[in-house]
Amino acid sequence: MNEGHLIEVESQERENAAVLYLCDTPFLLTDLLGPLGLHSNLYWVLLQVPHGKLVAGRYGDVDLMAGPLRLTTKRGIEWPPAVDHLVAVEAKCAYRSPTEAAVKAQKSSFGNVQQVRTQLEELWRFVPFNRVALLDIVINPPSGGMDGQAWLRAAAAAADSLHLMRRTLADRLPADSGFGHFAFSWGSVVGADERQRGTGAPLQWREARENPHLSDPDVQQRRRELESNLTRILSAWPSPPQIPAILGKHPPPQAKQ
Questions:
Q1: What is the pTM of this model?
Q2: Cα 191 to Cα 79, 145, 147, 175, 195, distances in angstroms
Q3: Number of other CB atoms surrounding residue 20 within 10 Å
Q4: What angle in degrees, to the nearest 10, is found between the helix axes of 11-23 and 26-33?
Q5: By C-alpha distance, which of 159, 160, 154 is closest to 141?
Q6: Please, what is the Cα angle at 55 between 49 and 57, to 5 degrees?
Q7: Per-residue pLDDT at 249
Q8: How far apart are CA 25 and CA 192, in angstroms?
């Protein structure tokens, strides 16, 4: 992935790039993961883990998954970590057109909405996490101007993009859904990419509830499989030297062929 503003990234790579940029700004990541039960930077994060690596026979990737870290007096970070509270985030990425007042790639059609809901349901029933959330990211072109004007313009553009997408956001999930929902319109300023010169933060639109299916025997069996496979996956990484532990994409670099 090339460095630069997210609007410059190829469209098919923009979603993954946005999640990677988010992980490079831990204070924004904590705004997302805190409401999901992971607080005070005491968490680990993995990206793009194939469902089939967690539960056999399943397809797709977990865009972002995370769990808590525990500290010990003798060893520091307990590693591999406990996997008793696991959260998953499904990310979608739209973008503000540089040439018109419109947000593109909203994925607002009936088919796209149903696909999003199916993807979230997968993370409850078949690759079962404790809490699951949808993250809608809107990328905005960089703003310019003298002194603080650029930052004000970037913030205003980001807020306007969120307003333009409000109907799509409102229709993403059913009214009684237990999935969390966050919206992040990421403003940017010329001179550096969003990680250094970005505005905004993930806003919680809907609170995530605990997975109601974890009492189902079939789901419990899949959860035990997930925990066993995930512990093995996490063990492939060395104990992280700092918190939060942003491990990155699966598999770890030394494990790649």
A1: 0.94
A2: 39, 11, 12, 41, 11
A3: 19
A4: 90
A5: 154
A6: 105
A7: 83
A8: 14
Quick one: DSSP state of residue 92? E
The C-alpha R_g of the chain, in whole angstroms, comes to: 19
Q: Strands of 110-179 (E only): list them.
A: 131-139
Candidates 27, 43, 76; CA nearest to 245 is 43
Contact, 168 vs 108, CB < 8 A?
Answer: yes
How long is the chain?
257
Integer distance in angstroms from the first to the last C-alpha of the chain?
19
- Please say whether the beta carbons of 245 and 45 come within 8 A: yes
Measured CA to CA, the distance from residue 241 to residue 77 in angstroms comes to 8
Strand duo 76-77 + 71-72: pairing: antiparallel
**Is the predicted pLDDT of residue 166 greater than 90, yes or no?**
yes
Cβ neighbours for 123, distance < 8 A, ≥ 6 positions apart = 62, 88, 90, 129, 132
Identify the H or E element spanning 230.
helix 217-235
**Per-residue pLDDT at 257 exceeds 50:** no
pLDDT for 251? 72
Rounded to an integer, what distance in angstroms lies between the CA atom of residue 174 and that of residue 181? 11
Is the separation of the CB atoms in 109 and 94 below 8 Å? Answer: no
